Amino acid sequence: MNEQDLIDAALTVRQQAYCKYSNYHVGAALLDEQGNMHIGCNVENASYPEGSCAEGNAIAAMVAAGGKSIRTIVVVGGHDDVEDCTPCGGCRQRIAEFADSDTRVILIRPGGHTRTFPIDELLPRSFHL
Ligand code: THU
What is the CATH number of the domain that holds 118? Predict the structure, then answer.
């Protein structure tokens, strides 16, 4: 499982996004500490706040499968083609819950270039109990 596999999976699952209200399609693919991949897309709802983000859904799939932590997560989103899509604040906190200082967040830019961030850079001094 390499970075390109995660990128391909995020782009593929993005096509499944249920986003009839925003028309903003997001896909996420993560690699857990066991080397297993988990995917998610955004799932919206007629009652808008009840929708869920791609990253959170991929994390829920990881937890359900027994994964404990995120090594790498790829996030890709956009209305039509891929746009610059950085995780929302809530998803940064969701990622931080299962991250350590080695966890990398990969974002795909228009044109296919990627940017990689440590989660600490996206959410400095995150909240932990
Ligand atoms: N969305 C995500 O899936 N992840 C994010 O980090 C940002 C936003 C979704 C939520 C909603 O379905 C759509 O994108 C537009 O906000």
Answer: 3.40.140.10
